[in-house]
Design goal:
Oligomer: single chain
Helix content: 55-70%
Strand order of the largest sheet: 2-3-1-4
Structural class: alpha+beta
Shape: elongated
Distance between the termini: 53 Å
Number of helices: 11
Radius of gyration: 26 Å
Number of strands: 4
Order of helices and strands: HHHHHHHHEHEEHEH
Length: 313
């Protein structure tokens, strides 16, 4: 009885230990992303943008613009400008997010104040592209860690909820105001290069968040659904879902039944899928849509077992 009781206690404690270990791993991973983001953003600011009087969009752009027209240090402006956004973040998103955002912004300010990065180049085009690249990568990495280095997204979320606007539209409107101010206070040329910096940063941010494995949902309707199903599972190594459907086109009273295949692939596999579909059924009806995120299911590519595949053949 005693041994049985101990086994039951060990079994009850093991899930708790596993959950605790998983939480620690997640926290360490998030902290790693935030630290990498701080380093990348600080490098982009100190080595490219600030020495050449370039700005970016959002709260970072406001900080850079004020730093150019005043004697205030950038590290201090990064903190002050983001304070209102942190307050909004606490109200609109929550305490955990705000704590991480405070950690990230204070970390960025500390690195800017204490670490001296060398100026890499004075070529305006290289400054705009690579300054935006490192800054966008830093912001993207911090977001992957559950935080932000730029509070503009928080303001956009708040305004979109209050006025029923799209977040992207709010961010564009904010940045238009910032770049118009840059054109007035600095110069039109500096504003144009700063817009190029913003474009480089935003594209890099999207790439860091989505990665190469940006997922695409694919819906396929074909008379050769059995062959297509075999191709997706065997050649692409992807899972799929089959829906039973009826066509809505044709004579009244005549049912046109068929299978609808739905699968999720990466954008790098789209070309291969299209090539294989053309071999099986060039007239297949295909609908593709981008997916921001996936969770659960067999999303990651299935590793084929050689022995199993040989047996099937």
């Amino acid at each position: 009885m005693e041994s049985r009781r101990r086994n039951m206690e060990n079994q009850s404690q093991s899930p708790r230990k596993n959950r605790f270990g998983t939480e620690i791993k997640i926290i360490l991973k998030d902290v790693g992303f935030i630290l990498l983001g701080i380093g990348s953003a600080a490098f982009g600011l100190e080595s490219f943008l600030l020495p050449n009087s370039f700005i970016d969009g959002g709260a970072t752009g406001v900080s850079l613009l004020i730093a150019e027209v005043s004697d205030l240090p950038l590290w201090l402006l990064i903190i002050v400008v983001n304070i209102p956004f942190l307050v909004l973040g606490y109200r609109a998103i929550g305490r955990a997010f705000t704590i991480r955002a405070i950690f990230a912004i204070l970390g960025l300010a500390a690195v800017l104040a204490l670490v001296n990065f060398p100026e890499v180049t004075q070529d305006r085009l290289l400054v705009a592209v690579f300054g935006g690249f490192f800054l966008g990568a830093g912001i993207g990495l911090s977001i992957r860690g559950g935080s932000v280095l730029d509070g503009t997204e928080v303001l956009a979320i708040f305004l979109s909820r209050k006025f029923a606007l799209k977040i992207g539209d709010v961010i564009i409107l904010i940045n238009i105001v910032i770049f118009l101010a840059a054109a007035y206070l600095l110069s039109i040329e500096a504003a144009l290069y700063s817009m190029l910096t913003y474009l480089a940063a935003s594209r890099t941010l999207d790439f860091v968040l989505d990665g190469i494995e940006e997922y695409t949902g694919v819906t396929i309707i074909s008379k050769s659904s059995a062959e297509i199903r075999h191709m997706i599972t065997e050649k692409l190594g992807r899972g799929l879902t089959i829906y039973k459907a009826e066509g809505g086109y044709g004579r009244e009273g005549v049912k046109n039944e068929y299978d609808v295949i739905y699968t999720v692939i990466t954008r790098l596999e789209i070309r291969k899928l299209n090539l294989e579909l053309n071999k099986i059924d060039p007239n297949a009806f295909v609908v593709m849509n981008s997916i921001n995120d996936t969770r659960g299911g067999m999303v990651k590519k299935r590793v084929m077992d050689k022995s199993t595949s040989k047996t099937k053949r």
